[in-house]
Amino acid sequence: MCGIVAAVAQRNVQKILLEGLRRLEYRGYDSAGMAVRNNQGELKRQRAVGKVQALADRLATDPLPGTSGIAHTRWATHGRPSEPNAHPHQSRERLAVVHNGIIENHEALRQELSEQGYVFESETDTEVIAHLLERESAAAGDLLTAFKKVVAGLDGAYALGVMAADAPDVVVGARKGSPLVVGVGSDEAFLASDPLALLQVTDRFIYLLEGDVVRLSAGGLIEIFDASGAVVDRPVQTFEHGDGSASKGNYRHYMLKEIHEQPAVIAAALEGRLGDRSVLVESFGPQAESLFKQVRQIHIVACGTSYHAGMVARYWLERYTDVPVQVEVASEYRYRRVVVPEGTLFVTLSQSGETADTMAALRFAMQQDNYLGSLGICNVPGSSLVREADLSLMTQAGPEIGVASTKAFTTQLTALMLFTLALGRVRGMPEDEQATLVEELRRLPSLCSEVLGLDRPIEAMSTAFAEKHHALFLGRGAHFPIAQEGALKLKEISYIHAEAYPAGELKHGPLALVDSEMPVISVAPNDELLDKLKSNLQEVKARGGVLYVFADENVGLSEADGITVLHLPHIHEALAPILYTLPLQLLSYHVAVLKGTDVDQPRNLAKSVTVE
Ligand code: AGP
After folding, report:
1. Is this structure's pTM higher than 0.85?
2. Which of 56, 125, 348, 527 could cross-link 78 (Cys pair, CB 3.0–4.6 Å)?
3. Residue range 535-585, pLDDT digits in tens
4. What b/e sequence results for 527-553 when a residue is b if at least 16 CB atoms lie within 10 Å of its CB, and e otherwise?
5. Domain 245-452, what fold?
6. In terms of CATH, what superfamily is 453-602?
7. Rg from Cα positions in the chain
8. Distance between Cα 242 and ligand 1 center (Å)
9. Domain limits of the chain?
10. Alpha helix locations (H) across 25-95?
11. Distance in Å, CA 482 to ligand 1 centroid
């Protein structure tokens, strides 16, 4: 969602804050702002609607010099994108605050503060925090005491950074429901909602826990207080992915770079987890084997692309482990009465590990009786999901910046196949079957590279889509969720309405939509449903539909059939969902480029959805 960056440094912080905002822009991008305490002890602020560059342009003519500051890039929740609604919010020019998340009791607080004479300049929920701080600091005498009192009265989710005109070189922060990390510098200290923002100045981080409050002061002093108010020591961790991920390299967009990173990151997801002929169950943690032996049922819960990965896994898990699987979107799961048969494992997936609905679902699940435990599959070390799930498996995709998930999805699928094989192993899956899939997993990165070689023909294919308003994606079996993922990608970044159907369902309604104006895209691996799929494609063709098919090289579909066909190398049918995702990603990417949309930061979206 929104992004926070803050600094207490030995140097002018404007440049650090601005670079931090650029790196956080993927989280939210409708407005940005910065407040810095200058040498005269005044809080000075600049805000601008639009991308971070608009703020940079303002700062170029009207800079904000100072050694401590807070900054924010916004994704609107309360109040439209506008300068008055942009953060930081201030109270009487003495206090400034940046906030991610939602304050649920803001209306009551706003009324109370208005009655006490505070004048509101914005429509945001955040502004109440600035005024509450102003009110409490008068009584408390220092910023930290006032801040703790204010935070105790807030309902909802937040990551916060605040500063005060009368607190030189101090920034105070807190996290509850939204991520916040402390960057440890040399005699300097920083705060951010994502370590990526701070890799320009440090690779050492403290991941704050729920309820933590932190004070950064001059000389790099970092004091952390837990939810009970006690002083705590949190470990300093070194960020291991390097800083390369924060740049596009030679690629035009992060999304394209991340698509092309897939062979390497899938190999990284497999590294150290494959034995000669089976998956190493220990890679899921020391308790994994005994836990997996007790599994009788699995519930998979996630959002968006991660949900699609879970849908694919259902086909794998039921096919290879005989364990019944239920898959559900987190925003639905968290609000219904869930029947949990004994021996159920809760599995959750999240690229960010901070998605509000997914985290709420995990917490809700852990309060139910009968769950054996939880497995979190995640891409961000130290994230809430990793900390709170009983077992975790990192997907090793490295930071993903493009809002449309690509490498995060295929590494989630890879991790889910590892999970299938680990569970299969403890439940007696035939050894030959395990060995075959392990061998196929080893071939996967090079097959992915081969498919990425189809970039040019897919780019040529994309010209047929740029003027269209609708598209239909078809798949069968485990490729139905791949079709859904293809449709989501096209919607997200090209703004073309796209739907996905299991191909066998066409005749029950959506066939009525088929005409020459709606391209129909299908994936056709060489699996046991191929003949069924071919019949479904004939149904489309017979009604004047225009078909684009990504097909196995051996399936006997060719251009002569009056359809556009691109052939993919043969792959074991179980792993085909991973490989067939790649051409759909490339197709969406090229359509979006032709349409001239903002590929990496599509309108109305944010990378990490930390509000409900
Ligand atoms: C996918 O392209 C989207 N960015 C979105 O659907 C995303 O997968 C969803 O918001 C869940 O995010 P998570 O994996 O970080 O939990």
Report:
1. no
2. 125
3. 888 888 888 889 999 999 887 777 766 689 999 999 999 999 999 999 999
4. bebbeebbebbeebbeeebbbbbbbbe
5. Rossmann fold (3.40.50)
6. Glucose-6-phosphate isomerase like protein; domain 1 (3.40.50.10490)
7. 25
8. 23
9. 3-239, 245-452, 453-602
10. 52-61
11. 15
